[in-house]
Each structure stands twice: as structure tokens, then as C-alpha cells.
Amino acid sequence: MTFIEDDAAPMLSAVALREHLGTEIGVSRWFMIDQDRINAFADVTDDHQFIHLDPERAADETAFDGTVAHGFLTVSLLSAMAYDALPPIEGARVGVNYGFNRLRFVSPVPAGAQVRGRFTLHALSDEPPTEVTLTWAVSVEIENHVKPALVAEWINRLYFEELT
Question: For residue 90, with 0-12 CB atoms within 10 Å meaning exposed, 13-18 middle and 19 or more buried, which class applies?
Fold first, then answer.
């Protein structure tokens, strides 16, 4: 069961969020991974490997049947997916990406596919006086595929004036 059942995410306190450990908190909307997005990511990152940019060559020389998204493109969408799927935390001044405990690219994302993130609260630690570290079990699904694009333990840190 997902904590957020509708489009309106309720604001939670960090203390209340602890009650949902082990619970899927939210699921993002679908994000289109079209060739234009893949090309733009290649330009930003200077990663122009043919498996991402050349549909004919990728189809001829790989098992992918065409171009696939960069794994790091999929990772880079986690923030947008989280904004889309997770409730705002009461009193948080700012949140930052703190890193990953684990990250695996399970399946390639073909150009033209849609992906979405599923977020389960794996751990929460209060770090007095004004920090909370959240660890999310994240799975990025590919629409109409059995295996996810990636699975990860993603760590975020929230900073507060004071914890409520």
C-alpha cells in the first residue's frame, strides 16, 4: 500500500514520517525518455557513445534494438520524481542529495520509453539539533517492462530551524 493515495501529498512532520518506515510513500508520474532528451543529456555530459545517439548502429551492433538512455540520465531524474511523489516535510528549510548506499542499473531504458519512480522509506535518523537523514529504497520502473531500470538506496538530508 502506498502512503500517498491521491495527487495531493499531505505535509508531514519529520516525526510523523518515522511512522511510515518500510512503507511505500509515493509513486511519481511517468517521465518520457525520448531521443531528444537522450541527445540533450549526451551534450551536457559529453557522453556521446553510439548506443545513446545512433539508432541504426545501436540496433545493428547491440542487443538493445535501438538507442538507450544513459544510466545517469535515469539517476538524474530521481530528484524530479521525488518532488513529484513525496510529501513536503514541515519546517524543512532545505533538502540535499547526500548520496547512495547502493545503486544498480538493472535494465536499459529504450528511447521512447516512459519511467517513473517508486519511493519506500527505508530509514530515518534524527541528527540533532536540526538535521534528518532519510534513506529511500527507490525503484525506477519502465512502462510495460517487467524489470526496473534501476534500484537504489538513496540518501537525502533535510535541514530545519528546529525539529517539530
Answer: middle
C-beta atoms surrounding 77 within 10 Å: 24
Cα gap 57→123, rounded to integer Å: 43
Task: Check pLDDT > 50 for residue 53.
Answer: yes
Residue 31: name the closest of 137, 153, 141, 138 by CA.
141
Residue range 55-77, pLDDT digits in tens: 999 999 999 999 999 999 999 99
Contact (Cβ atoms closer than 8 angstroms) between residue 102 and residue 153: yes
Rounded distance between C-alpha atoms, residue 131 and residue 92, angstroms: 9
DSSP letter at 12 equals: B
C-alpha angle 13-95-136 in degrees, rounded to nearest 5 = 75
Q: What is the pLDDT of residues 107-122, one digit of tens each?
A: 999 999 999 999 999 9
Q: Count CB atoms within 10 A of the CB of residue 10.
A: 11
Q: Which 3 state secondary structure label does DSSP give 98?
A: strand
